[in-house]
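During the no-cost extension, the postdoctoral fellow (Dr. R.K.) reprocessed legacy sequence entries with the updated structure-token encoder. One reprocessed record is reproduced below for audit purposes.
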Amino acid sequence: MLSSRSINRIAIAMVLALTPTALALGQESLLPDSDASFARMMMLIASGDEGPTDSGSIDEADEAEANGRDGAAGENDSAGVEDETPEFTPIEIFDPQVTQATTLTIADVVASLYRHYPKVIEARQEPAVARGELVAAYGAYDTKLQGYSLNEAMGFYENYRHGIGVVRQSWWGTYLSAGYRIGRGSFQPWYKERETNKGGEFKLGLGQPLLRGFAIDPQRVAVFQASIDTFAAEPKILQALLDASRDAANSYWEWVTAGAILQAQQELLTLAETRGEQFKILVDAGKFAEIDLILNEQLIAERRGKVLESQRKFQASAFKLALYLRNDVGNPLIPPAQWVPRQFPAVTAPPQENFNDQLSAALARRPEPQLYQYQIRQVELDRRLACNDRLPRLDLIGEISQDMGEAATSSRDKGDFQLVIGVEGEVPLQRRKALGKIQSTTAKIRQLTEKLRLQRDQIATEIQIARNALELSSRVVDQAEVSLEAAIESLDRYSFAFERGKVDLIYLNLLETKANETEIKLIEAQRDWFDALADYQVALGLDPLDQAMNVASLPPSDLPKAGRTLLHEQQPDDVIDPEEFESDWEKHTAPIE
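Re-encoded structure tokens follow.
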């Protein structure tokens, strides 16, 4: 029969033998915390001179029955349970060899977006499209080469006619033509003008609108509208950059958040796994009840499930971020887990500026009002053209011609210099086309004006919402920090009480879960602040890359580092005074009178 002191020596020897295995379950950066936990449990073993409790002993028959149910060959129940545990490999989020300088920043994502994001590249083609349309619009003023060759080779009148010339429309609607023609053979008496002298005829022509088409015409409207499109190309690029950068920022902060939450869930799991190794030693030493070991195994399984769910969300966020983060050839680049920053940047209060000044600057920078203004100018050109179409068409016509060479007929009626001048007009009596166009363009201008007014109101609302969200989100971060500190302090004290048998594992699990949830709330509060900051910057129309570089240059947050909350250095016994704790615990457990 072994004495209690002998049992303690055996338990301590088992602890020392199993220490490498227990420590290997945690990450390298978390080893000091695990050592602290083992030190406390070894103190519990060394101080247990009262002897093992009945509930902590396990006889050989129970071992054989448990191993028979599990179908595994092991030395005890604990080995059987461990053999049944599915293989579990957590993602290493924070590699000790990865420095802060090698982590992925928001500036890296936005810079990649500027270079390779398809929607941004698509928007950058707008200037080329607009310039091409402008060149096409100027095509209405191209010099046109015209020609014909007509032959009547059979019939009573046999003749041939050939002609060539150039025609061009000027900017003010004038039509200019110059050409040469020749007509030989016998012609019908009513078509004698087709006949020329043997050397042919040179002719110059002119047509000048006097009313409709003089001040403005469809060709000039097309040029003006195409020119406006060239100016509208830059706001379209800016709009694509603002929209894409906001989505990229949201995806980036979601990825950082998912990585931090995954790390927090792994911390919670590490607590249970480390405690499970300690429980196995204590159960073997007769210091702990087997039911506590089974309960802890249940907690391990539940927490592994949460880790797996967090891994799923983290990997999904990485896939989504790859839409904006691309390699040198423009293909999506899935960021590895080691690129996750260890901390958010510091949450800093934005400078307080006058709202009206911010709104005026935003309206000047934002692309949406500019695009609406350009659309209004284009429709105004259509309206001017419709007003001009109400006028009658009245054109000045002028033509000079001179036949060359020998006379084609004995009458010699083709050799003199000829001048034709006059006017030609036309007017639709109802003028419905022009009046209808005026009505529709006037209504379109009103529509666009209201859209512009609404857009300005929306920009003002976006700025107000973003400012409000930014201010309140910073307060939420502060309160989440206070809540986390209180949760960690409560967990420290109840862990101290658990080591002394004053609370059970179920209550300790509730406190650990609560501390984990509080840590996640702090992480999400920081994410919400940076999402609000991205919305605020977009609402003001600021350059996304400049703002991303400013955020990336912020110092790391002084809030608790990921991986240093639940697994932080616990308070030693000389900090929590046992006598003071006992007195406080008696007050805590005393019945309310």
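The CA atoms of residues 276 and 296 lie 6 Å apart. The longest strand covers residues 159-169. The remaining legacy entries will be reprocessed before the final report is submitted.
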